[in-house]
Amino acid sequence: MQSIQKNIKNSNLLLEVNNLNVFFDTADGKIQAVKDVNLFINKGECLGIVGESGSGKTQTFFSITGLLSSNGYCNGSAIFKDFDLISASEDKKREYLGKSIGFIFQDPMTSLTPHMKIGEQLSEIATFHDNLSKSEALKRALNVLDIVKLPKSRNLINSYPHELSGGMKQRIMIAISLMCSPELIIADEPTTALDVTTQSEILNIFNDLQKGMGISIVLISHNIGVIAETSDRVMVMKGGKVVEKGSTFDVLTSPKDEYTKHLLSCIPPWLEG
Amino acid sequence: MNKQENIKAIEISKTLKGRSLWVDARRRLFLNKAAVISLFTLIIISIVSVFGPFFLQYNFSDTDWGSIYQPPSFETGHYLGTDGNGRDLLVRILHGGRLSLSIGLIATFVSVFIGVLYGTIAGFFGGKLDIFMMRIVEILYAMPYLIFVIILMVVFGRNIYFLFIAIGAVEWLTMARIVRGQTISLKEKEFIETSKALGQSNTLIIVKHIIPNLAGPIIVYITLMVPSVIILESFLSFLGLGVQEPLTSWGVLISEGSREMETAWWLLIFPGSFMVITLASLNFIGDGLRDAIDPKEY
Hints:
The complex is a heterodimer.
Chain A: H1 2-11, E1 13-26, E2 29-42, E3 46-51, H2 57-65, E4 72-80, E5 83-84, H3 90-96, E6 101-104, H4 108-111, H5 118-129, H6 134-147, H7 154-157, H8 166-178, E7 184-188, H9 196-213, E8 216-221, H10 224-230, E9 233-238, E10 241-247, H11 248-253, H12 258-265
Parallel strand pairs in A: 3-8, 3-9, 6-7, 7-8
Antiparallel strand pairs in A: 1-2, 1-4, 4-5, 9-10
Helix pairs in contact in A: 5-6, 6-8
Chain B: H1 3-15, H2 21-31, H3 33-55, H4 89-125, H5 127-142, H6 145-156, H7 160-187, H8 190-197, H9 202-238, H10 250-259, H11 266-293
């Protein structure tokens, strides 16, 4: 049984993380933020990571993509299609980041460079990853805007980030990570800074990306509702450890861990159903 | 929204144009009267300094023993009088202006170039490199620049190009410090993190995302640095370390004029006023730009 499961896992495995530990050097000594995390993501699958603030859910993926702050370091392995992201050099890793792995941040308001036009920011990434010319990249940018349901207008391309709403900016962020047709998108609380209606639009886009384009998505959130709506499998984290994982349906309907039960009981009764 | 309203909205959105931070800053700058007047004054002084000498009948180095210490007069054509060698003061002021302004611009440009590069590298990479680079800056700060300039002049001879280098070498230190501080605060911003997550190289991040965002403080600092460089040059010339005869600069003219101010007041007043007006204009423009680019006080 064990070996069969492993085989299924291997056939369309995209990212496999083994024994990942993340540490931070602080004034109070060494702090371990992520403790022995193991996870895998298959092609075309949506993995939800849920947990409270400081549970290490963001740092897990920051360490995989090399975004840890300067006092942080990690060990373990993160194999993305036969390539270990953790032991790789910065230069090697850059070939994957933004190209095969997209990253979407929590706050769209500050994630876009303020002095650059939207079009430039979209096309920039394609010019250095795929060596496209500026006009080719812009053409691709217009197509990508269609995927995230923004109008293909010259106007949008020529406007600056401060002229757009939060939801639009987050769509632009998604569009930027789609520019080089990635296989995996890591979305770190992509809807936390947005209101509920915008949130559902953004989640719909993620659904389309996953179901329609076969892109694997890691959705990090502290909102169980968001996870329930989108992800196939879910992983619950607390204090740097994985306390429970399994299919979303199983975890949400019959939680085994105390913390997960606790977390589910926090949903107000009028929202259940 | 019905269909017509939709079409209307689309038409309106077509006419909207993206307004960059710079367009906004320019608008605020042009609302500042002092800055606009100063800008015009500065442009006029620069144009007159550059092209003026071609339209005057005297050459800046022609001596005329028949007209020594002539007060300003329209009849002789010496509009601002002559000096002790009978040279026309107006031509000399304009020539001096060319030199003072170009020293101001070139030395500032050199020091901004070095300072920005140095500061962004130290600030962006941080850690040991940052400590090492900033200690060098502090050591250079501690060196008395006057001695540095004198040594440079003694070793290489009094050459105008070394004057540029000497001033540039002194002025970049402050720029490097300012830029480093700004870079450190900028690199923690999320859009820099985004660029990293998208696999952009450090060089690209510095050039495309950090330096353009530093443009505000840098531009403001440039407008305040040009006058300080002009003053520094005047000071060095005043001490006899600057420009050599028959070339001249505002500093040299003021230095000469101050020796003769009891007998020939015009030799001090006119070069002095040219310099004061230029410096005041630059400072007003700097102030205006600061308010325009960083409008926190409104």
